[in-house]
């Protein structure tokens, strides 16, 4: 299956190394534990989460739940499975009226592509979709969104380059309400180097949304690029200061060895992972399922 093949490199850098570790040691000693720590760190699980897992392992040894290297693997599978399945990962849908999805993230993480994939996903479920091109900073971003909109057969609300993003959002909300759209997906600019501007812009967009639809946005989705590993966690920390994030979409899990970052996002940031990107195609977006993910990682 697609998820399993996407995680091939992560499995090589993580699961297979743990299997080798188990074979390589007769007893659990400090050297064996150091090596385990190395494996977790190099799979981009993150320092914080690695330390937590190592504490768990040491406690497991004390409690005699872990008596030999062979016991390490099932112990870790169980513990990581628990971390992955914390929190509500299911995407939220409005009770009445349009579901508003506000999409944020740094340029290049795959924001536009992901919005296109989301549009396609909901279209396939017979939902009507409108896209709002509120990244008005780059003309290319508006064009790209139009292309994805055409592909998914979704209307795109766009102004010209340099227009006020909040005005685009206002028009898109009006259109979504009057056309009785099911889903409105809002693209936003991702210039993190002008952090103050970004926060102002997001705040303004937020206020416009709340004024038109008080219980929206139903999701504020942060797009993170799995290939950036720990940097993704750092970005998430910065963005939490700009907007209340309801979930993460982790892109580019295919072809990276850094898939362990999912564990760090869930454990360290306690953020739900709502979707994962597993390729460049329009169907390469999957709802995140903790059990499927753990199975694909370990089996
Ligand atoms: P944006 O600047 O954040 O809007 O990024 P784009 O949507 O333009 O995507 C940047 C690049 O990442 C493009 O080449 C996409 O095809 C690629 N991309 C996006 N999502 C994925 C994914 O899940 N897997 C892979 N392999 N590539 C992706």
TrEMBL record:
Domain AAA+ ATPase as annotated: residue spans: 97-255
The main location is: membrane
Q: Which GO terms describe its molecular function?
A: GTP binding; GTPase activity; signal recognition particle binding
The catalysed reaction is: GTP + H2O = GDP + phosphate + H(+)
Q: Name one GO cellular component term.
A: cytoplasm
| Keyword tags | Cell membrane, Cytoplasm, GTP-binding, Hydrolase, Membrane, Nucleotide-binding, Receptor
Domain Signal recognition particle SRP54 helical bundle, chain residue ranges per copy: 3-84
Residues in coiled coil: none
EC number from the UniProt entry? 3.6.5.4
The family database entries (Pfam families) matched by this protein are listed as: SRP54, SRP54_N
Q: Which family does it belong to?
A: Belongs to the GTP-binding SRP family. FtsY subfamily.
Q: How does it assemble?
A: Part of the signal recognition particle protein translocation system, which is composed of SRP and FtsY.
Protein name from the UniProt record: Signal recognition particle receptor FtsY
Please name the gene that encodes this protein: ftsY
